[in-house]
Write a structure and sequence with these properties.
356 residues; alpha/beta; eight-stranded parallel sheet; two-stranded antiparallel sheet; 13% strand; globular
Amino acid sequence: MSEFTCNQEIVTVARRSLTQDVWDYLTGGAEAEMTMRRNRHSIDSYAFIPRVLRDMSSIDPSGTVLGQKVRIPVLLAPIGSLQAIYAGGGASSAKAASRFGTMPIISSITEPSLEDIAGAAEGPKVFQLYVRGDRDWIKAILGRAKSAGYTSLALTVDSAYYGIRERQLMNRWLPPSVQAQTGRHLQSAITWELMDYIRDLWQGSFMLKGVGSVADALMAVERGVDTLYISNHGGRQLDHCLGALDTLAEIAPVVKGRAELIVDGGFLRGTDVIKATALGASSVAIGRLQGWALAAGGEDGLVRCLELIEREIINALGLLGVNNFSQLTPDYIRKTEVVGPTHELSTFYHLKERLT
């Protein structure tokens, strides 16, 4: 897959490889897709303030996430029904993450089984949980995840209801995880008390996925949550939310180092990663880009995608005057006007037209 020279080429091949139904599932958002578009808009609304006359002969693009060193601060976000995008499903993502040197977050509603995915590759892995049963069910699935070797748990809390995704509705298509799901109504009954129960039962590294407000970030920190995963589900749940990077910019100074911050939502380039870390995130997670890379070239395609992001990061850090991520501060970026319309693919300018 070394023939891919940039991720725009990967997206182009992915579009040719996927059916319309699956492309729309992976690429689309909820209702008017305003949240999805704001994710990209918020990233594009920050400009760099570079420094010069510094020794940039050595650049270290690595990061530390959940106490683990990663080759770049880019994680693989959980994707339900990943097997509909690429036959290897979550196992292929886990293998690619292990080969490259980063961490996958594995969805509890993807295939193959959580045990098979964990066994597919070495290295730290995060298990993402949707609540689909009672407390006995929760105990059982967390026990399985522990036994399989997952090092961290991510509890998703922004999905009380399944988003109204009009692309899917017009296609009369539902992903396999939705067709097969049972206990979906239990996701709407998650409370802070149940979150406490799940965290205490897990007794390990724990993150809350789907934090979208300062108020909830503070409540989580006060209850002892040490990792906040800022996310609006890629714009696939509640429409008309803030862009994810703007949400990060609000939460980071209020949390003030009391919790590690991870963010996803529209991150597609190395420069996007740098902006998020400058605002206080330890890492970003990629969802759509992960899926496109798998569709374009499977495990090898995803490894190549991460290599291309790494190249972009090294190049941008060097031009910004920064040797490593620990040197980044908000002083290196500034809010400005956005050039041109934004949508889920607008950063890939040389595609010339929006892929639909």
